[in-house]
Amino acid sequence: MDQLTVSDRDTAYVWVGRDTGGRPGPAVRLLRRAGAALLGRAEAEVVLAHGPAGNPVVRIAGPANAGPVELPVSVSRAGRIVVVAARAAGPVGVDVEEVRPLPALALARRWFAPAELAWLAGRGEAGRAVDFLRLWTAKEAVGKALGRGLRAGGLLREMPPPVGPGLPLRPVPGGEPLRVGHPELGAGFVLALAVRAEDGVDVAVEVDVEVVQRAGHGVAAERSAPVDRTSLPVVVRGNASSRRSTRGRL
Fold first, then answer.
1. Could you tell me the pLDDT band of residue 234, with boundaries at 50, 70 and 90?
2. DSSP character for 44?
3. What is the pLDDT of residues 91-104, one digit of tens each?
4. DSSP 148-212
5. Which terminus has fewer CB within 10 Å in the chain: N or C?
6. Measuring CA to CA, how many Å separate 50 from each of 61, 69, 147?
7. What burial letters (b/e) apply to 3-34, b meaning 16+ CB within 10 Å?
8. Strand duo 56-60 + 47-50: pairing
């Protein structure tokens, strides 16, 4: 795999690998890789655990007389892929769903806020399932970034109307310093990424997206390069200038 160059900007990194029936192995490998890359240690030094809410935790031993150093991470699975997100600057949440036929309006009537139901009803029928999944994955990703999933009314937490993949992260209504968007992952999947600021510092509005595809992975990417057989990294960078060519903007 090409050596990951860690940015000095606020950056969320997303690795996408091939799942093996929900077994922990692929996610564990990606979590160790994320911890090694962003914490600057060997993969063997990365410790995996679970937080109080059951969320995954990546940590390494800290300096002498100090506690461990932790890296905010998030994991999601759908179909044949597993997704791991990591962000050194603060909490991150990720969720992925495989695109499939579903009763979007019936599900929205049961689970979504009235404004979201009205928005979805006004969308074209042909793309309504994808629009529903964009709202759903956004709620899941935001819940993970908050550390509480969909508990406490998470499905009723209103999201900004999705405007498609490859566009800027958008503020989440409600006053909390949260942003959510949908990086371009490829045909057949919907990916949502959420970030939360800490200490009252807002998160970047514009980010870049780099996709490096592993041959035969089955997930479309914007450009190809030689990478490891078990993952393809999607790099979401904050505070970056606009770039075109092979890079999309989230």
1. low
2. G
3. 999 999 999 999 99
4. STTTTTGGGS--PPP--SSS--EEPTTSSSEEEE-----TTEEEEEEEE-STTPPPPS-EEEEE-
5. N
6. 16, 14, 12
7. ebeeeeebbbbbbbbbbeeeeeebbbbbbbbb
8. antiparallel
Place of tokens 């000095």: 8
**Confidence check: pLDDT of 236 > 70:** no
As given in the structure block, the two tokens for residue 182 are 């949908």
Q: What are 85's strand-pairing partners? A: 14, 74
DSSP character at residue 213: B
Residue carrying structure tokens 């390069």: 225
Query: What number of residues does the chain have?
Result: 250
What is the identity of the amino acid at 223? R
Structure confidence at residue 26 (pLDDT): 87
Q: What's the burial of 234, exposed, middle or buried (CB within 10 Å: 0-12/13-18/19+)?
A: buried
Q: Say whether 47 sits in a helix, a strand or coil.
A: strand
Q: Is 246 helix (H, G, I), strand (E, B) or coil?
A: coil
